Amino acid sequence: IISTTCVLLGLFSSLHLCSGKFGTPITDDVSKLSILKQNIPTDYEIPVSYIPKEVAGTCWVVLNIYPLEESLRNLASLFGAMSSNKDNIIVFIAMLKSLRFTFDHEELEEAMQVFQCHYQKKSLVSGLYFDYIQDLLHAATQGTSSFSCKPPPCLNHQQTPEGQEESRKYSWLKRSALLLVLIPFTACVVLIVWQVKSGPSLVACKTSNGQTASPDMIPTVSVSIPLQALTHAADCQATGEAISEHESG
């Protein structure tokens, strides 16, 4: 009976440790966060990519564990091999890595891809950064993480620095295209107005220079015939008439 009881207790303990997909490989090393807070200046900013709780919902731990692990790796690379800060940071990297291995890799990758547009990259001061790590590890111990969450519409990506930069570039392109259209149009309008205003003066100038004239202003040509030529023609006509009468008589 005693042997059977021990075996059952062993099986029960094994099942209890392995039960649930989201184990809690969190140890008392969490207290080392306070040591890191003291060793790193309070105004030092640490970049991290994350999704807020109000966006991620129950997937908050699942979606943020790997980006936080990468952020800690970058932070550890700033310290020397003999630095105690680097040793403490490596402890949390191993802690997050063990926690990540309790999740299904394919489901984790798929969830991160679905929420990809909601990731925000910010630089947190050291105090807020280590508080964020503590909150995430504490939430992981509660066993409330899951993959059964749907992302909201992708609207928050424009709030990130990358989204704001893309938005500014797009706005500049729109303004440039509008200027390319307005400048020729404005030039055409100015040219038409100038021609309309300068039209009467051009007509008056051409008229004064004799380039255009009305029909009433057509010049007349006079021909003068000498008086002696007219008298000679009359004498010739009279002599011709006298000869004609003499022949007929």
TrEMBL record:
Q: Which residues form the signal peptide?
A: 1-20
Main localization is: membrane
- Membrane-spanning parts: 177-196
Membrane topology type: Single-pass type I membrane protein
* Keywords of this entry: Cell adhesion, Cell membrane, Cell projection, Cytoplasm, Cytoskeleton, Disulfide bond, Glycoprotein, Growth factor, Membrane, Secreted, Signal, Transmembrane, Transmembrane helix
SUPFAM superfamilies, A to Z = 4-helical cytokines
On whether ATP-binding is a keyword of this UniProt record, the answer is no
Task: Please give the superkingdom of this protein's source.
Answer: Eukaryota
Q: Matching InterPro entries, A to Z?
A: 4_helix_cytokine-like_core, SCF
Q: Cross-referenced Pfam families, in alphabetical order?
A: SCF (PF02404)
- Tell me the compartments it is located in: Cell membrane; Cell projection, Filopodium; Cell projection, Lamellipodium; Cytoplasm, Cytoskeleton
Family assignment from sequence similarity: Belongs to the SCF family.
Q: List the protein's name.
A: Kit ligand
